[in-house]
Amino acid sequence: MSFDFSIRPRRLRENSVLREMIAENSLTVNDLIFPVFVSNEIRDRQEISSMPGIYRWSLPSLLKQIPEWIDLGIRAFAIFPCVEKEMKDETGSEILNSNALTYEAARKIKSNWAETLLIGDLALDPYTIHGHDGILDSGGQIANDPTVEILAKASVLAGNSGYDMVAPSDMMDGRVSIIRKHLDSANLLHTGILAYSAKFCSAYYGPFREAIGSTTQAPINKSTYQLNPANRNESIKELHLDLAEGADILMIKPAEPYLDVISYAKDNFNVPIAAYQVSGEYSRLVAAASCGWLDLDKCAQESILSIKRAGANLILSYFAERMARILF
Ligand code: PBG
């Protein structure tokens, strides 16, 4: 066996300036969207035990915190409400209260910082006692169409309260088109839809459910609406449907375990692709780093860079603040 030593790829890796110049991807704080938890039940902020470094914020303390994030360059936020137990019910009716915390938060943030991008998560799970993203029919099954009607009405409340985009995270069939119709008839023509299109039924959502207080006693099973992690074709079908129904941005979630789907979406759709590096993806790195097994900053950066390289240019990440401090 002979090797042609005129071909030496390492030549391009010798000089650090050249290495940086030929980097095919790089992260900036403009790639990142920071998910933020807001709660009426605490005074200042409270660390989420399964997500060290991430907090539930009272609305007043959140309003005090936002300028610091903006100074770091973070200008895009996805807001998740933690809803008091007493306000939860079978149908998640609090989502249709125009004074609900999530709408109040948007009004306050937007009136102070109009230049931010605010994304309103649209799903029933923070509001239902059973923790599902849909309402249940008499047989205990998730009732698709009535759930979609509620989400569509809620999208109008979200748009009117100042959210720039609504992000349906429920995985009901047909919701993007009905939400678009409701937004348009309310003249919310510029309220966009960031669709959780390929959302997998993932065990990595565990810490998030603790964060918003939707953890139920029996483990919850969302496999009648979220995608089977084994199914790539089916996830592609969902991406096609959401685009056809009027989604402005398609999202894949979780992110790092599904880079193949992100990459497909990037290569095949002419719209921006988002990915959600979810709570469990965050917590696993933080946990390993706290044992001294991994370098947290480096692993977080590598993980987000992988998501970007695969093709996502909007990345929801709990590491947003940490990354902003590194990238600054
Ligand atoms: C539910 C929702 C979930 C997440 C965002 N919206 C969890 C779920 O489907 O149970 C997960 C986010 C994360 O894990 O960080 N509508």
Give structural notes.
With 328 residues, this protein is α/β, with parallel strands linked by helices. 39% of the residues lie in helices and 18% in strands. It contains eleven helices and ten strands. The chain has helices spanning 16-21, 59-72, 101-112, 144-161, 175-185, 206-212, 232-245, 259-268, 279-290, 296-310, 320-327; strands at residues 32-39, 45-48, 51-57, 76-82, 117-122, 165-168, 192-199, 249-253, 273-277, 314-317. The protein has an eight-stranded parallel beta barrel with strand order 1-4-5-6-7-8-9-10, surrounded by seven helices. A hairpin with a 2-residue loop joins strand 2 and strand 3 (51-57). It is globular and about 70 Å long. The mean pLDDT is 96. Bound molecules: ligand PBG. Ligand PBG binds at residues 121, 123, 125, 133, 169-170, 205, 208-209, 222, 278-279.
Features:
328 residues; alpha/beta; 8-stranded parallel barrel; binds ligand PBG
Structural class comes to: alpha/beta
User: Which kinds of small molecule does this entry bind, naming each only once?
Assistant: ligand PBG
Low-pLDDT segments: none
The helix content, as a percent range, equals: 25-40%
Main sheet characteristics: 8 strands, parallel, barrel
The number of E-state strands comes to: 10
Number of helices: 11
Order of helices and strands: HEEEHEHEHEHEHHEHEHHEH
Strand order of the largest sheet: 1-4-5-6-7-8-9-10
Shape verdict: globular
Q: Average pLDDT across residues?
A: 96
Strand portion: 15-25%
Note the gap between the termini: 49 Å
Radius of gyration: 20 Å
